[in-house]
Amino acid sequence: xxxxxxxxxxxxxxxxxxxxxxxxxxxxxxxxxxxxxxxxxxxxxxxxxxxxxxxxxxxxxxxxxxxxxxxxxxxxxxxxxxxxxxxxxxxxxxxxxxxxxxxxxxxxxxxxxxxxxxxxxxxxxxxxxxxxxxxxxxxxxxxxxxxxxxxxxxxxxxxxxxxxxxxxxxxxxxxxxxxxxxxxxxxxxxxxxxxxxxxxxxxxxxxxxxxxxxxxxxxxxxxxxxxxxxxxxxxxxxxxxxxxxxxxxxxxxxxxxxxxxxxxxxxxxxxxxxxxxxxxxxxxxxxxxxxxxxxxxxxxxxxxxxxxxxxxxxxxxxxxxxxxxxxxxxxxxxxxxxxxxxxxxxxxxxxxxxxxxxxxxxxxxxxxxxxxxxxxxxxxxxxxxxxxxxxxxxxxxxxxxxxxxxxxxxxxxxxxxxxxxxxxxxxxxxxxxxxxxxxxxxxxxxxxxxxxxxxxxxxxxxxxxxxxxxxxxxxxxxxxxxxxxxxxxxxxxxxxxxxxxxxxxxxxxxxxxxxxxxxxxxxxxxxxxxxxxxxxxxxxxxxxxxxxxxxxxxxxxxxxxxxxxxxxxxxxxxxxxxxxxxxxxxxxxxxxxxxxxxxxxxxxxxxxxxxxxxxxxxxxxxxxxxxxxxxxxxxxxxxxxxxxxxxxxxxxxxxxxxxxxxxxxxxxxxxxxxxxxxxxxxx
Length: 683
Prior knowledge:
This protein has 683 residues and is an alpha+beta fold. It is built from 12 helices and 16 strands.
């Protein structure tokens, strides 16, 4: 990870500031209180948000309601921009939702989500998600006073803090989890032991059930054999019954035939009776029709006469209609002439030439009209005389036609009655023959009934035989049912025993599995309680000893570079730095300010290298931030810082110091100035 740029808005003494971070060694220079440390706090805030115990009032500029930090950095070739905001409420200052942009892809996240994402980018363990980020503090940026504080802490607190940072506290968690796990194992072993306490009893019970099953199966086999014999006997009886039933069925069929013949005889007798009644009736009716005769030629002659008379009558009717039409036409003409005479008498002038009409002219016209009317009246008289003659002829023709029609109708009635007489004679003959046939049928049916009765009598012996066989059949069926019930009961008993045996076998197998599992659990509990716990304790001591040895070596290296000859340093069992001068231990409090700073810086640099070596995959290996690392240093110690900076060999080293001499040791200098409570970047 390499820092690129940071923008501060209303953060501590910054109103609106921007700092660009090049690669190499960078000095943040300025007077005390100029705002150098604020930049470091802002970097940490951008990455992780407010740390546990950190108050937002320490970051948000006094008198402002909103502030923000935007940090740009590069990690694994990715360009990352993080923006976090602070907002002042009525009672407190809160962190607003933040955003992160990775290679141009921006995402809005909650405070917690962003911290988890940053931990992932830096490849930091997720256990720091809800804790103070000691890993960042001890590998990248540690305020100088905090490093001095860890040296001054009591031995137990310091050891626990370092164990946590080194990740060695996992061995303690392993021991605690192992104790908890073995406790659960012992509890489970006790439960398993209680659950398999009746295993021997279950085995004895299984043996007893197997014995009972064998007895049930043997009894079932005997019953099945007896039942098979009964069923064979039953089959023989059934076959015999079927043969008897066939004979009885023949008898029943004969009896049915006899009954049918009796019904047929009764039906035929009834038919004969009805035929005799009908015959007598027909003979009486034929006597009444004996005088009926019919002449077809006479009917034909009457029909011809009727047609001729009808034609004559139609001709007379047509002539009458014609005469009436002629008379009406002449009367209409006379009426028209009278109307013309009246109109002429009323006309004074000619309607065509408008000249006056003379009386002589009118008289001439009137005479002409009168002559026409007189002529028409004579014709009407002649026509009316003819009309009377025609009506008389029509009346005579109608009377003659009616007489012929009556005579023809009587002949047709005679024809119908003659036909009826013929049919009755034919029906009478049919009845006589039918009565004769029916009597012969009755005689034949009586003979068949006699024959069938003989057969029925011969088959009657099978009725008693059927009853005897049926009784025997029912006795055998009763025996069969009893055996079936007994067999079903014994088979059911065997089935229940099989299920019980299966359940017992499963339970025994399950308990045997529990027993085997319990033995394994006991072995595991014993191994965890003794061998594994000893191995964990040994591993923890070995790792801690190795880390202490490496830490002590690096501490001595950096301390030797920072202090004059005559002073030496080492670590005790609790990682407490022990300073010796000429073979005597010197208390930390008795050291000079520069020497105490040298101890803290050496401790800080040694811790950085040990952690980076232990956690080789974290992404902050290439950056170190030192906050006032030379506080209280003498001029000689300041000169030695050049060697320290060269020896660190990191891609990006950021120092905060107000010592101008260090400017000659670094690649880049960024100067800060504070005026009227506001910090600005000078260059």
